Amino acid sequence: TNYILYKSAMDLADGTSSYDIDLAQGGPTVIMGNLIEGGPNKANHTAVISYNEGATNPGPQNLYLISNTLVSDLSSLNGFITVPVGSDDTLTIINNLFAGPGTLISGTQGFSKLDSSTNWFAKTVSDAGLMNAAAYNYNLSSSSLAINKGSNAGVINSIYPGPHFSLTPVNEYVDSAN
Question: Kindly report the CA angle at 43 between 40 and 46, in degrees rounded to 5?
Answer without folding.
Answer: 90
